[in-house]
Amino acid sequence: MDILAAKRERHSIRVLLVEDDMEIARRLSEGLRDAGFVVEHAGDGEMGLSLGKTEEFDAAILDLGLPDISGVDVLKRWRKAERLMPVLILTARDSWTDKVDGLNAGADDYITKPFHVPEVAARLRALIRRAAGKASPTLTFGEIELSPVSGTVTLKGVAVDITANEFRLLNYFMHRQGRVIPQSELLDHLYSLEEERDPNTIEVYVGRLRKKLGRDIIKTLRGLGYRMG
Ligand code: CA
After folding, report:
1. Which of 13, 99, 163, 192 is the S-S candidate for 38 at Cβ 3.0 to 4.6 Å?
2. Is the domain of 32 the same as that of 117?
């Protein structure tokens, strides 16, 4: 495996960061990437709103003080559009009303500025774990069982050795059984927008999943994408 591929294997949790302060955004993005997250950054509310509504994220970090749309409004509109990813809000230290407004609008946790990046990473992991536990303990497809909480996959009750990206892809398919998923959507889910994306990697991962779990689990629909079930 080359270095880039090794790096991608590690990057498996996708986080949206909405923050207009470029210095804070840079520090957070770098720190979280080092901690193994894929980070998409939106520098204003409009872009954050749009990314959060149209793309899949495991969690979002949302600054409440944005220049265009307020963070609370962004959050309300995500929730209205049934975007249910865990949201960690960033607030000014002295503003308890912000925290209350944010939590009432559907935030899952908050952190006050200034903060330490490892604390943000730890809070995110806790939120994502909790959200996964809430969603469903295990997903099944035929004789395959996947546990989002423990990150394990079994075939006929026997544990299957699986990499982080394979797990991530399989989890995505298992949540969308019967649906045709375009390759571009799978790429979006696996990689950050800034990372070099090679569409061939999807075919490689799907090939590995077939090898480990059964040739027919994921069908290729030429020119359309992939489908499980
Ligand atoms: Ca701000």
Report:
1. 192
2. yes
| Pair 147, 138: CB distance under 8 Å | yes
143 shares a domain with 119: no
Q: Do 111 and 208 fall into the same domain? A: no
* Cα 195 to the center of its chain, rounded Å: 15
Q: At what angle do helices 200-213 and 183-190 cross, to 10 degrees?
A: 90
Structural domain that includes position 62: 3-131
CA 64 / ligand 1 centre spacing (Å): 7
Say how many Å lie between the CA of residue 69 and the centre of ligand 1. Answer: 11
Looking at the predicted structure, is the pLDDT value of residue 78 above 90? yes
Tell me, in angstroms, the distance from the centre of ligand 1 to residue 19's CA.
6
- Long-range Cβ contact pairs of 134-139 (< 8 A, separation 24 or more): 139/171, 139/174, 139/175
Instruction: Compute the distance from residue 43 Cα to the ligand 1 centre, in Å.
Output: 9
Question: Does the pLDDT of residue 194 top 70, yes or no?
Answer: no
Q: How far is the CA of 82 from the centre of ligand 1 (A)?
A: 25
